[in-house]
Design goal:
Layout lengths: L2 H6 L6 H11 L7 E7 L13 H4 L13 H14 L3 E8 L2 E11 L9 H18 L3 E4 L6 H4 L3 H6 L6 E3 L2 H11 L6 E4 L5 H12 L3 E5 L3 H10 L8 E4 L10 E4 L5 H4 L7 E4 L13 E5 L1 E3 L18 E3 H12 L14 H10 L6
Parallel strand pairs: 1-3, 1-4, 4-5, 6-7, 6-9, 7-8, 9-10, 10-11
Antiparallel strand pairs: 2-3, 12-13
């Protein structure tokens, strides 16, 4: 329990009782849901409850007090690559079910080093098999753990182990739903970067069905045409390929799935809002424009024992892919959610999330 909560009088009335319950059962109780994350970078690796509980109870930001510890954190990174296995970072309870966050001992930059690809997939696979043996119901892959180039959005593991009892999900259906529900109903045209990615494809196909014109930024006509052919014939005209940023110089709704440099942002007209599904978020360069945050959802009000923050999110708010796994678990869905996003399920998952008490932050 963070000290500032105690001093500030914000301690939940049942905090001590709940902590005793958790301490008694956390070592022998099987989690119902697991969010499988990875480390972002060396500095943020210290944002964990077992390192600095007071820091982890607040949204992550670079703190000067932690910088002198960077050499130690770097040495731990090297040690983790050599001999560490997946470990539990945090946990909370929701409606009688135990939810845990496990972390793969790999850092973001390592996912882009080709020789490390097989080792990372092996770590993820071992975590999935461990969860399956334990009796975990749903395991949600976070961030780069579901990268298409790495494992096909989780498809690799489901194909390799067809008898898995644990449901493997990427949670991106809810991520798409969060982004789409941020767009005002009056919008008739959008500019989409990262247009042929998993999320970009689903967003484009969904919006064209609403008769919203989507300018899809991509140099690959082959990938654009493949996505366009997936749309019903009467809506294909709403998907338009563009190859340069200046094509969006009059469009005030940008859906950003690929990092934008300040130079590229200059093409946006004044008053543009940048909706984001890119990591890391773009630099807020334009003062005459507004910037959305990464897709996230607030957990239901009856969540218990949540003492830490998920990266830059405030306490009680989690990334949309995490929330997508929570919804999958609460609904008791029996299918895996891997690979391409099923556009027909976007509204289904969104309504289910709201029904269970999850809400936009």
């Amino acid at each position: 329990m963070p000290l500032f909560d105690l001093l500030g009088g914000t301690v939940h009335p049942r905090s001590w009782e709940l902590q005793k319950e958790v301490d008694q059962g956390k070592n022998d109780r099987v989690p119902d849901f697991v969010f499988l994350a990875h480390v972002v970078d060396v500095v943020s690796s210290m944002h964990v409850p077992f390192a600095f509980r007071a820091c982890s109870s607040q949204p992550w930001t670079t703190r000067l007090v932690l910088l002198p510890l960077w050499p130690i954190a770097f040495c731990l990174m090297v040690l983790q690559v050599l001999c560490s296995k997946t470990f539990t970072v945090s946990f909370y309870c929701l409606r009688g079910a135990l939810h845990q966050t496990w972390t793969i001992p790999r850092y973001s930059f390592q996912y882009f080093i080709p020789p490390m690809k097989d080792g990372i997939n092996r770590q993820i696979e071992l975590a999935i098999l461990r969860a399956d043996r334990m009796g975990v119901k749903v395991l949600s892959l976070a961030a780069l753990n579901k990268n298409e180039a790495l494992n096909g959005g989780g498809t690799l593991f489901v194909d390799r182990h067809p008898d898995l009892r644990v449901r493997v999900v990427h949670g991106n259906t809810l991520t798409a739903a969060v982004i789409l529900n941020e767009i005002p109903g009056s919008v008739k045209e959008v500019f989409l970067t990262g247009a042929t990615s998993k999320l970009g494809r689903a967003i484009a196909l969904y919006l064209c069905r609403k008769r919203i014109r989507v300018l899809m930024l991509t140099l690959s006509s082959e990938r654009f045409l493949k996505i366009q052919r997936e749309a019903p014939a009467e809506f294909q005209q709403y998907l338009v390929q563009v190859t340069k940023y200046h094509a969006a110089k009059t469009v005030k709704t940008w859906l950003v799935g690929k990092w934008l440099s300040p130079r590229e942002q200059r093409w946006a007209p004044a008053g543009t809002h940048f909706h984001q599904f890119v990591v890391p978020p773009v630099i807020e360069f334009r003062r005459d424009c507004t910037y959305g945050k990464l897709a996230a959802m607030r957990l239901p009000k009856d969540v218990q024992g949540l003492g830490s923050c998920e990266y830059t999110m405030e306490r009680g708010v989690v990334h949309a892919c995490h929330a997508g796994g929570v919804v999958h678990c609460l609904e008791g869905w029996e299918h895996h959610e891997v690979g391409a996003i099923d556009v027909d399920r976007i509204d289904v998952v969104w309504k289910a999330a709201l029904r269970h008490g999850l809400s936009p932050p």
